Amino acid sequence: MQPGYSKDYAVKAQLTEARQHLDRAKSLLLSENPSCAEGAAAALETIRGSLQAFLTWHGLNLPEDTPLSTLGSSAIVLARSLETFIHLALPVERLVEELRDKKHLNVNDREAAQAAYYTARNLLSAVAGELPVHLYPSSKPYNLQDQVV
Length: 149
Description:
Layout: H1 7-30, H2 36-57, H3 68-78, H4 83-101, H5 107-130
């Protein structure tokens, strides 16, 4: 959290940025020439941002380069309801690395990138449900009906 900013402001900013990454992931995966590696990377940024926002709300201001596993385990200690979502999100980090290294993607890679999007969307929604409603960047929580086709 930057000096001079309230915790509410910092958390709202982190949630807004996480939502922007999620929207970017969706647009990358839905484009005429889908970029699965970039879409999965944007989903990973959504996951990281969601966890950072949750931890910031609870007074844990960890550096941006904190390993995802550390962010996840720290969040689980504070809210066991996030455990399943976090365990599903952890493999996205490895997926991003694998997709970046591939020259040619197959159907399984595209499906994995879409699954990363859904995982990020679900985690963001679960995190938002654990925070006070006034912290949502908009007037309503994240829509679980938001789909990539």
